[in-house]
Amino acid sequence: MIVVLLIPANACVVGIMTYYDTGYIEEYRKYDNFSRYENSQEVFFKNSEYVSKEEYFRTDGSSFTQNLGMIAGFPNSYLYFSIINPHIGELFDELEIADHRSKIFFAGMDGRAVAGNLVSNKYFLAKGKYKGEVPYGYTLKAPNGQYKIYENKYFLPFGYTYDKYTTYNEIKDAFSLDKEANMLDMVYLEEKIPDIEQGVPKKYYSEIPYKVEVGNRVRYKP
Length: 222
Description:
Number of strands: 8
Shape: globular
Strand order of the largest sheet: 1-4-6-5
Oligomer: single chain
Distance between the termini: 38 Å
Structural class: alpha/beta
Order of helices and strands: HHHEHEHEHEEEEHHE
Radius of gyration: 21 Å
Strand content: 15-25%
Number of helices: 8
């Protein structure tokens, strides 16, 4: 119920602000985010041959809009004020996903290949003239048209198993990139389990030391 109410509420706020600024309610249509729905990446992908009702995966994109994936009917890693399991937010915090710092929306996985694999991203969409980076491991499948579609050759399905584990205490102070890299090899549990191999987390990355110099009339908040 909350999700249903928030969407029109947001549209109404945009409409009221536009009317206040211009005095013409017709201008509302120019600023209405929903008017872009039919030409969105989400709808383009929904109508492509790569969407299957028999396979479960998520999708990433260069210009996805929060919650349009939900409206179009396929999972992705972009959410805004939606009702979700709080543990998803905890995972994003642990991995230091940059676009979760506001705490009110998830906007993808920062283009990080390993993090994208862990949440089962299989495809990446980009505009035809997109010049940005494509996550590692993605190959171009559909080069023509308004959008390009890339497929992840290292795709992990929604359900996968581990043959070893480690406790959260062993990994909680690790660098965020090491946390995600070790999750490809072992699951993190709260307590030890007898008769199951306990893995030893590895250190894959080193943080580069840096120094911040603050000039005049600049405030720095670490």
